[in-house]
Structures are given as C-alpha cells and as structure tokens.
Amino acid sequence: MVHETSGATARRVPRHSPSSSRRARCLRHSRRQSSESSLARLPLALLATLLVGSSDAQAWAGEGGEALFQNKCVGCHANGGNVLAAGKGLQIQDLERNQVAAIEDVVSITYYGKNKMPGFGEKCAPAGKCTFAARLTDAEVRDVSQYVLQRAQEGWN
C-alpha cells in the first residue's frame, strides 16, 4: 500500500502485487485454452453433420441418453442414487417399489417432474414445477429415460 496525503487526511491506494498480475495472466491463459479447445472440436462436429446428417450427427457426437444424463441428472442421481429423497433413487428396486419401472412412467416424471424433482420437458408447466435450465425435447426425454431404465436393469454397474 502507498499512502498519499492531501491536506490533513491520508488515503491508502492499493498497489498491484506481482501475485495478482500472475493470477490475471493464468486466468487469461485458461480462458484462451478453453476457447481454443472448443474451436478444435468445431470442425469435427461440422464434419459429422456433413457426413451423416444433423440428427445422426448429434447421436454420433454423444448427445444420447448417457450424455443427457451426465449433463442434466447426475448432480442429484449419480450412480442411480437420489441426494434429495432417500428411497426415490433410480435403482431398479426403488423404481419398482415406487411403481415407476415402466418407460412411460420414467418419461412422465422426467418430462413433468414429481415432488422435489423438476420437470425437464420443453412444454412442462407450471413454470415453478419445471427446471429453469434449458429444456429437453420429447426425443431427448425418451432417450434419457431409456438410458435410466437400462442402467437400472444393469444395477448401475
């Protein structure tokens, strides 16, 4: 700190330390690397779109049920558990006990939500019952629901 005086009062003026400028350089470097890696994936996605068409390219790029689950669900349902409500996990015995072991049931809960779980469907209503994040299309809800049932039947191993 440097002290400046003007008249009778002294004022402290912060001086940039070497460590703060080093942190700023690291932050700029990490942002640049992040944007460079995103740009590096762009040609691959464009190539996939050209080769197999847009809907197949999304599946080819990992936008299926597993990728959706990792993006939207794993925060509360890692390894088929449920961090908010014990006994309401995604293990097959939980799904059967709660009478939601059929694909239609899992799709409905994923789309509209139930109890503490928000709905993720693009037409989910009322808004307070639905996620505030980006919504899933009907096909995406079905994909993630099929993934959940498949993993439940495999014991999440």
TrEMBL record:
Annotated region (Disordered), positions in chain: 1-32
PANTHER family recorded: CYTOCHROME C6, CHLOROPLASTIC (PTHR34688)
Domain Cytochrome c: 60-152
Functional note: Functions as an electron carrier between membrane-bound cytochrome b6-f and photosystem I in oxygenic photosynthesis.
Basic residues compositional bias, start-end: 22-32
GO annotation, biological process: photosynthesis
Keywords, sorted A to Z: Electron transport, Heme, Iron, Metal-binding, Photosynthesis, Thylakoid, Transport
Pfam family name, one: Cytochrome_CBB3
Protein family per UniProt: Belongs to the cytochrome c family. PetJ subfamily.
Cross-referenced Gene3D superfamilies: Cytochrome c-like domain
MF annotations from Gene Ontology: electron transfer activity; heme binding; iron ion binding
Species: Chloropicon primus
Protein name, UniProt field: Cytochrome c-553
SUPFAM superfamilies: Cytochrome c (SSF46626)
